[in-house]
From TrEMBL:
Keyword DNA-binding: yes
Gene3D superfamilies to which the protein is assigned, alphabetical: 1.10.1660.10
InterPro entries the record matches: DNA-bd_dom_put_sf (IPR009061), MerR-type_HTH_dom (IPR000551), MerR_fam (IPR047057)
The name this protein goes by in its record: MerR family transcriptional regulator
SMART domains: HTH_MERR (SM00422)
Amino acid sequence: MPYKERDINKMYYTMGEVTEMFNVNASQIRFYEKEFDILQPKKNKKGNRLFTPEDIENLKIIFNLVDEKGFTLKGAKDYLKNNKGDVKENQKIIDSLEKLKGFLVGLAQEL
């Protein structure tokens, strides 16, 4: 049986890793944590935040609504509250399209 490579997914991400993913300051992540109830990172004994993959998905949703679609914080909270299932499904579609775009851009550069 041939070896299949698996995607290695981390269970927890540090604040530094999250700020690099989203290219923002830690203060913005902490602010969104206070403003949005769906964002609940764990804290270790030192008080450092540890973000789960679900927290990362929720952050993607928040950044999509606030930064890309131009929602206000209150508008984004209301939208999340009323359309939680639709928002998560839409984010999965956006993620898959971004992966496809990255693949196609890489393919075009090779040609």
